[in-house]
């Protein structure tokens, strides 16, 4: 059973989707901690309701980003995660953390990457005039929303959409996509080959040469 640590910054709806899937036995893992970057988040409240330990590392009290990340990586090491899930975590991880957990950090982003990385992906999509948007779960690398794609889900973009309406439509798909990706990882069904993520069948014990 894999040890899962989730990082979040806000209301924690994607965290709740993962925690609920764990509770229902859909994920071969255990959420051993939620790390939040500020006090008073709804994500922390939801973690408490599921009996998941909460670790608050308040970004605002650190004089530098490196000091914050030193505390963050120390907390991660103490939790010994097999998988780190970024679920609405609004900080960019430093290269030291990414290198230590390479191939073991996943993120959910509200666009069909590589289109519209970074902030306000929904606004970017509307400004560009696309007819289809969605969400992407990907492994995290040292770029911005640039790691290998695990899976994607699509939604239509309607003529009367604004960023908030589109965001809610995408969020419903995020709540499906993120637990699915976590379940695949925790079942050892994902292999990274260059930029391609291979999904192994349920009963496969196959080892792909050159994979992580």
TrEMBL record:
Residues 2-182 form the Formyl transferase N-terminal domain. Pathway: Purine metabolism; IMP biosynthesis via de novo pathway; N(2)-formyl-N(1)-(5-phospho-D-ribosyl)glycinamide from N(1)-(5-phospho-D-ribosyl)glycinamide (10-formyl THF route): step 1/1. The keyword Transferase applies. One of its GO terms (molecular function) is phosphoribosylglycinamide formyltransferase activity. It comes from the Archaea. CDD domains: FMT_core_GART (cd08645). Its EC number is 2.1.2.2. PANTHER family: PHOSPHORIBOSYLGLYCINAMIDE FORMYLTRANSFERASE. This is phosphoribosylglycinamide formyltransferase 1. InterPro entries: Formyl_transf_N (IPR002376), Formyl_transf_N_sf (IPR036477), GART (IPR004607). Keywords: Purine biosynthesis, Transferase. It comes from Methanocalculus taiwanensis. One of its GO terms (biological process) is purine nucleotide biosynthetic process.
């Amino acid at each position: 059973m894999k040890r899962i640590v989730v990082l979040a910054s806000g209301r924690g709806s994607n965290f709740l989707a993962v925690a609920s899937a764990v509770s229902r036995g859909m994920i071969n893992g255990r959420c051993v901690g939620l790390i939040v970057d500020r006090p008073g988040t709804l994500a922390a409240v939801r973690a408490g309701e599921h009996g998941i330990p909460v670790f608050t590392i308040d970004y605002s009290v650190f004089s530098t980003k490196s000091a914050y990340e030193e505390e963050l990586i120390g907390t991660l090491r103490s939790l010994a995660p097999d998988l780190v899930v970024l679920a609405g975590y609004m900080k960019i991880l430093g290269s030291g953390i990414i290198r230590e957990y390479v191939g073991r950090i996943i993120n959910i982003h509200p666009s069909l990457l590589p289109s519209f990385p970074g902030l306000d992906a929904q606004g970017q999509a509307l400004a560009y005039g696309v007819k289809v948007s969605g969400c992407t779960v990907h492994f995290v690398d040292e770029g911005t929303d640039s790691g290998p794609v695990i899976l994607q889900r699509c939604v239509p973009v309607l003529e009367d959409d604004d960023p908030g309406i589109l965001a809610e439509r995408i969020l419903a798909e995020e709540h499906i996509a993120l637990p699915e990706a976590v379940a695949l990882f925790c079942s050892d069904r994902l292999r990274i080959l260059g930029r391609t993520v291979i999904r192994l069948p349920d009963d496969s014990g196959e080892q792909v040469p050159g994979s992580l």
